[in-house]
C-alpha cells in the first residue's frame, strides 16, 4: 500500500504532466475549437467589468507569468493592435488559454475522487493545488475576454453574450 506522500507525489506529477501535454498541444488545436464561445467558454451574466474590478484580477494579471508562449502560443499580456483582425486573433488566443486552464484543472476531479476514498486531507491538497495553479490564470484570461467584449461593443454596438447581434440592446444569456 502506497503512503499518502507517495500518492500525493504521484497525483501532482500526473497534474503537471497533463498540464504540459495540454499546454504543448494547445497552439496546434484547430481554430474552430476556440473561434467562438461555447460550453465553458461562454460568457455569463456574472462576467462584467464591474465584477472583475471587485476581485484582485488586475493585480493577478501583473503578477502571474504569461506562460502562453512557452510552447509556441502567443502572448496575451498585451493587445497586438486595435484592428479588427488583431482583436479577433487576441480573442481566439484568450479562449485557447481559458480552455487550457479549464482542462488542466479538470484532471484534478478524478484524482480528488480517488483520494477521497483514502484520505480527505490528500484530496484537499490535490484540489487546492489544482485550483491555485489554474484559477488565477483563468480569472486573468476571462477578465481580458470581458474587456475585449467591451471594446468590441464600443466599436460595433452591443453584442449578446452568445456572440449574435442584439439589435441595440445587450441580451443576457439565459434571460
Question: How would you characterize this protein structure?
Answer:
This protein has 175 residues and is mainly alpha-helical. It is 59% helix and 0% strand. The protein is built from 6 helices and no strands. It has helices at 4-25, 49-54, 57-63, 84-106, 108-116, 120-156. The longest helix has 37 residues, at 120-156. The chain starts with a helix and ends in a 19-residue tail after the last helix. Residues 162-175 have low confidence and may be disordered.
Computed Rg: 18 Å
Which structural class matches the secondary elements? mainly alpha
Identify low-pLDDT runs.
162-175
What's the helical proportion of residues? 55-70%
Number of helices: 6
Biggest β-sheet strands, sense, barrel: none
- Work out the number of β strands: 0
How much of the sequence lies in strands comes to: under 5%
What is the CA-CA span between the terminal residues? Answer: 52 Å
**Which term fits the overall shape?**
elongated
SSE ordering: HHHHHH
Mean pLDDT: 84
What's the arrangement of secondary structure elements?
Layout: H1 4-25, H2 49-54, H3 57-63, H4 84-106, H5 108-116, H6 120-156
Helix pairs in contact: 1-4, 1-6, 3-6, 4-6, 5-6
Amino acid at each position: 500500500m502506497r503512503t499518502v506522500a507517495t500518492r500525493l507525489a504521484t497525483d501532482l506529477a500526473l497534474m503537471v504532466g497533463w498540464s504540459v501535454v495540454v499546454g504543448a498541444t494547445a497552439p496546434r488545436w484547430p481554430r474552430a475549437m476556440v473561434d467562438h464561445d461555447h460550453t465553458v467558454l461562454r460568457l455569463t451574466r456574472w462576467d462584467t467589468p464591474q465584477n472583475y474590478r471587485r476581485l484582485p484580477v488586475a493585480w493577478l494579471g501583473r503578477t502571474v507569468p504569461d506562460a502562453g508562449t512557452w510552447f509556441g502560443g502567443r502572448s496575451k499580456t498585451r493587445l497586438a493592435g486595435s484592428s479588427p483582425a488583431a482583436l479577433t486573433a487576441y480573442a481566439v488566443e484568450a479562449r485557447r488559454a481559458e480552455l487550457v486552464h479549464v482542462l488542466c484543472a479538470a484532471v484534478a476531479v478524478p484524482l480528488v475522487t480517488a483520494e477521497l476514498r483514502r484520505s480527505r486531507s490528500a484530496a484537499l491538497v490535490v484540489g487546492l493545488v489544482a485550483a491555485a495553479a489554474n484559477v488565477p490564470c483563468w480569472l486573468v484570461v476571462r477578465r481580458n475576454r470581458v474587456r475585449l467584449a467591451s471594446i468590441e461593443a464600443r466599436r460595433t454596438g452591443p453584442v449578446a453574450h452568445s456572440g449574435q447581434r442584439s439589435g441595440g440592446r445587450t441580451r443576457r444569456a439565459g434571460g
